[in-house]
Amino acid sequence: MSAIALLSPRSDDQAVAWRNTGPVSLAAFLHEVGQVAERLPERPFVFNLCSDRYHFLTTFCAAMLRGQTSLLPPNHAGQTLALLHATHPDAYGVADQPMNVAGLEIRAYPALPSGGRSHGEIPLIAAEHIAAITFTSGSTGQSMPHPKTWGSLVTEATLTASRLGLETGCHVLGTVPPQHMYGLGSTLMLPLHNGGVIHSGQPLFPADIRLALESLPAPRVLVTTPLHLRICLEQQAVMPPLALILSAAAPLSAELAEQAETAFGALLMEIYGSTETGSIATRSTANGEDWKPLAGVTLSRAENGRTCVEGGHIQTRIELQDVIEATDGSHFRLTGRAADMLNIAGKRASLGELNRQLNLIPGVRDGIFFAPDEVPGMAVRLCALVVAPKLSAQQIISALRQTIDPAFLPRPLYKVDALPRNATGKLPREALRKLIARLGTRPAS
Amino acid sequence: MTDSQTSLEQEVAALIVQALNLEITPQEIAPAEPLYHEGLGLDSIDMLELSLAISKTYGFQLKSDAPDNASIFSSLRSLTRHIEKSRVK
Question: What chain B residue is nearest to A235 in terms of C-alpha separation?
């Protein structure tokens, strides 16, 4: 069984992370990971619920040292955790903020005295160890697990860094959480395995992003989303010199990419990937819409017409949700996004499941959620069309609040007499779009 | 509602509803109710949009003074107080 080091080699005093208090050296980092590992209970699965990126990182590493697997739920909502706990009953949680989930033992991240150092060698982790399991929600509500081996995570980090020219160390600041594949890959694994340094924060507002970047030495890399970029541009935020900006999680337009490159004086690279696959391709969005797969990653057409991906860090062939067209032997283009899966404010749900919840509400005769076409840089919010003569829009919203995450609540919700079903009972997207355009010109009922 | 909105609170409530396209009237936002997570159920994306609307209307940029913006966004009242203190227009 092959084994891979916990992180790329560096001297004892070289930084691994950057906190409000300054750099964390390799020796201090290894000491903290060891201390956290000693305190973990003997169980196979841990929900890593830490919100500080450094705590998340040390807990993730400590769990591996103990042979445990980190469960990375799509969000920290109590209902999501409870559902995943049901399928992983022997899991516990580690959190650095007070949290309560019925039936789940959540341990507080340990308060450790500062100044500890370990001078041992960098520990090795078996390449086949399942380091993490990420989840996507299926169309009927259950979560689909996507196990990630330590070997595949390290390979992904190496391939991505070599594509982006970040093999020799950089200081990474992320505005995205570490528990999704984009954040895990780009803000933790990439710097960890390429001599880089991980900023512990997750700044939200442009002024916070600027302060955090200013606290880091060059070369600085900002890992963010189109939405953060748009808000930074609209607020005319000034950033310190950046080596690179990475964007993912939502479509980015060439125009927004160009504006960001001009305003922040840095190259912007966009990453394409998914929870199932991790990062699989990159593009310089301002210079063309075609994606170039990471080294060794190949795309092929399955019998059902879907595109599959394999090679590189992907150990077994995975079917992609998106519609993809090869433009030449080494590039591809996205021609359609997966229609059913939604990603709003970092929360994931399927339209099918939301529709099911809507139609379960007593008094709702028929109803459907509608995701408007995405506008790059704008957050998507859903609309809903509902036939419910005896309920007010308010009552329907209150009922939905009980079962779905607020990120997916319809804004707005339109009450209608009937849905525009066609002869086969289906709801063509075009008919819904027209009806909503008409309804949008009058205030919601 | 036991607690009524002051005039600046009314103005900020209207800004929130308009900027975020919420399915409520401004008067329905209870001044002491949490805006984030529970309560009104806003998320960090809403906070970003709202920070943009606030900077355009009141001429200053929001900064987190807590890791999760807990204090500024703890309620309409605290956000309004923060705007009152920081506004330059």
Answer: B52
Confidence class for position B1, pLDDT limits 50, 70, 90: very low
- Whether the ω angle into residue A219 lies within 30 degrees of 0, i.e. cis, is yes
CATH of segment(s) B7-86: 1.10.1200.10
Question: What's CA A334's distance to the chain center, in Å?
Answer: 19
Torsion angle of C-alpha atoms A420, A421, A427, A433, degrees rounded to 10 = -10
Alpha helix (H) residue ranges in A133-225: 150-164, 181-183, 190-192, 206-215
Of A154, A152, A151, A148, residue with least CA distance to A134:
A148
Q: Give pTM, 2 decimals.
A: 0.86
- For chain A, report the end-to-end CA distance as a whole number of angstroms: 64
Q: Measured between alpha carbons, how far is A192 from A29 in angstroms, rounded to an integer?
A: 11
Structure-model confidence comparison of residues A74 and A291, the more confident one: A291
Residue A205 has its nearest CB partner, among B64, B67, B68, at B64
Domain ranges of chain B: 7-86
CB contact under 8 A, A407 and B22: no
Contacts of B37 in chain A (CB under 8 A): 406
In this predicted structure, what is the pLDDT of residue B2? Answer: 52
Query: In terms of CA atoms, which chain A residue is nearest residue B37?
Result: A406
For residue B55, what are the contacts with CB-CB under 8 A and spacing of at least 6? A235, B61, B62
**Domains parsed from chain A with CATH numbers:** 3-336 (3.40.50.12780), 341-439 (3.30.300.30)
- Are the Cβ atoms of A208 and B20 closer than 8 angstroms? no
- The segment with the largest mean pLDDT, out of A240-244, A273-277, A430-434, B5-9, is A240-244
Q: Please report, for residues A46, B8, B80, the alpha-carbon distance to residue B83 in angstroms, rounded to integers and kept in the order given.
A: 41, 9, 5
